[in-house]
Amino acid sequence: MGWLGADRGRTAIGTADTGATRIGTGLTVLLAVACAVSVANVYYAQPLLGRMGVDLNLRAEHLGLVTTVTQLGYLIGLVAIVPIGDLVDRRLLIVAQALVAAAALVAVGLSGDTAVFFVAIAVMGLVSAVVQVIVAYAAVLSDPGRRGRVVGVVTGGVVIGILLARTVSGLIADLWGWRWVYFVSAVLMLTLAVTLGRLLPPDRIPKVRASYARLISSVVILTARDRVFRVRSLIGLLMFGGFGAVWGSMALPLAAAPWHLSSGWIGLFGAIGAVGVVGAARAGRLADRGLAQWVTGTALVLFSLSWAAIGAAPYSLILLAVGIVVLDLAGQALHVTNQHLIVQTDPAAAGQMIGGYMAYYSIGTGGGAIAATSLYGLAGWNAVSAFGAGLSMLALLIWAIDRLARRRSPDPASNHPPRTSPPAERQAIP
Length: 430
Prior knowledge:
Strand order of the largest sheet: 1-2
CATH architecture: Up-down Bundle
Number of helices: 18
Radius of gyration: 21 Å
Number of domains: 1
Number of strands: 2
Distance between the termini: 40 Å
CATH class: Mainly Alpha
CATH topology: Growth Hormone, Chain: A
Shape: globular
Structural class: mainly alpha
């Protein structure tokens, strides 16, 4: 097998298909790159809002709509597009979304009218949900014994894309203007579509038998009936609420006295957070070894403690940097472990599960950012830190209660290999 090759002749999850395909190390890295390039589209605009407002005649109070419309499109994509991967070949879905994203990015770059601009960024956000289709594709085509590691590497790409998007867009905008950020990204997405179309093996994992309406409503059904999904999604909601709180409001104390940092210097804290990739990769390996619950408990404790250092932002940049590193290491480790356990319960429904889980992510991130900025205006950074610590400790409490309940009434789903029912018996959640 070449470095970018795939392993053939191995048994697919829950099937006897001897022609099944497994992704190798090279394709895992390629998928991580694809995630980084794709998710960055959602975050490019954040340091460019001032330039966009001047160019498009947007009033200052309306600039927040750029992020809101993009995130709304992304949320709709999570609910409406990601689950389609449980019905069709995910390779084709990934390539199609990448092509649409390239077209939408060109439209953003060319837009001179605000209506066209907002429609284009909404479509861009919608198809940027391809990131979670890629994660599901990587999860179901990886060996069960390597799934945590593969998901960790691919999720690491997502982390890098999110954290470095702001820095990259700022640099390109300084050189050529904000529109070129989207033109360059369009070229990258088109290149990505061609590359993935040529190199990705088909997704031959057995598909669920369900209507599209049932699939897009699966997040509600999963929350009500699947204990692993419900607990892990609630933990993810609170964890990403913490992320949204710190990343959505951190610029406020750093731009104020005594620091008065520029946007460029504030953006460097995003690069520091890229250390979280290490946590994602390591957590995946530990989850493969059956230590997912140990990773969860440790990560939640560290996530909670990190707020003590983050709270020092108005007094110490070093402590803030330490807190961000710990927050991201713990958060990404927890994120990978959550996805590992959710997909493990039924790999054939990975699209529904990951799409639903990431819907909680969107709600948590947006809600955390809005709450944090409001709290900062009312009571300062100490209130934001207390809010983040409270969310973290609540997540830890939910996990601890679930563990105690499982000891009394064990549920093998989170500790045993995935179900292996034959294709004919695969059903959507009833």
